[in-house]
Amino acid sequence: MEFGYFTLSDNHYENNTRTANQFVADITEEALHADKLGMHSAWIGEHHFNSLGVLSCPDMVLAYIHVSFEDNQSIFDEGLELVRKLWAADGRISHHGKHYSFDDVRITPKPVQRPIPAYVGSFSKPSIELAARLNCGVIVAPFAAAMTFGGLKQVADVYHDSCAKYGTKPHRLMCSYFTHFADNGAQEDAQRARQIRYYRECVIPALPGDPKTAPPSYRYFVDMVARLQTVKPEDLTENSVLLGSPQRIMDTLKKVEAAGFSEVILYFNVGLKPHQQVRDEMTRFMEEVAPAFDGAHKQKAA
Q1: The pTM is what?
Q2: Closest by alpha carbon to 273, among 193, 213, 169?
Q3: Cα(133)–Cα(193) distance, rounded to whole angstroms?
Q4: pLDDT tens sequence across 186-199
Q5: What integer pLDDT is reported at residue 202 of this predicted model?
Q6: DSSP readout, 126-188?
Q7: pLDDT tens-digit profile of 80-110?
Q8: Is the pLDDT of residue 125 over 60?
Q9: Does residue 115 have a cis peptide bond before it, meaning omega lies within 30 degrees of 0?
Q10: Given this model, what pLDDT does residue 10 score?
Q11: What SS3 state is found at 125?
């Protein structure tokens, strides 16, 4: 199993003295540090949410160009399928669909890697089915997988069943995990508080929580918000975070590996965790946890 670096660049916290510019610089350095440590990948999210990204209110901007959120799922489905066709085509193609229409278009330069590995971030069954139909891999968040499907194993089952349905070959399954080391009770309490702060100050304001206004394809977020509003530090489990000693983290990841997941992207810099602490925890993970798993990181370490 491989391990990567992951962040959504959350910086919208009350009384936060860290500027956005400084955090971007920290993230850049952390991503480079991940490469030096032998991590397999770096994932830096571009999220257009009011408390998770740079565009504070995309629905107001999109309203000026009359984009309907009622169609967002079908727009995404058609767009992803279309981009993959353009990547694969040797010449020009034409397309006349529900949301996109053009003639004689090509992408240049052509991708060197064919096919380009593509992953669908999935919180729902339709998105997992889309990934299977378009021959893509899947990335999920364990806490969402637990709420929507019951766990990571159930996600893997839905994905493989969908691949069988569409006659496609299953690709890699990945998941993201918030990651916190703690060697004693005081450290664990501090890490749990950090995670709760992230949920309350960044996640809940960003997600649609009103069932009257949430778009149909986002309705599962309503239940997610309701649960996060009542979550307490002691409620955090391996379904949402890697927390504790190296052995405890290792035990959870062994279950993830057994469920059929081949890479975990690790979210260290959450909840205003100081940059040096993030670096230290990244290093500690690769020195004390990663060696228990096979992967490219072992070759680099050798």
Answers
A1: 0.82
A2: 193
A3: 40
A4: 999 999 999 999 99
A5: 87
A6: HHHHHHHHTT-EEEE-HHHHHHHTSSHHHHHHHHHHHHHHHT-----EEEEEEEEE-SSHHHH
A7: 899 989 999 989 999 999 989 999 999 888 8
A8: yes
A9: yes
A10: 84
A11: helix
Contacts of 183 (CB under 8 A, 6+ apart): 245
Only one residue has tokens 């971030």, namely 121
Question: From the DSSP assignment, how many helices (H) and strands (E) are in the chain?
Answer: 12, 9
Q: By the 8 A CB rule, do 131 and 138 touch?
A: yes
Closest CA to 203 of 18, 45, 93: 45
Q: How far apart are the first and last CA of the chain?
A: 17
Count of alpha carbons within 13 Å of 301, Cβ hemisphere only?
17
Residue 283's contacts (CB-CB under 8 Å, 6 or more residues apart) are 33, 37
Residue 120 or 212, more confident: 120
Enumerate domains of the chain plus CATH numbers: 2-301 (3.20.20.30)
Q: Which residue has the tokens 């996600």?
A: 155
d(CA 31, CA 40): 11
SS3 category, 284: helix
Q: Kind of pairing, strands 137-140 and 119-121? A: parallel
d(CA 82, CA 201): 36
Per-residue confidence (pLDDT) for residue 52, from 0 to 100: 65
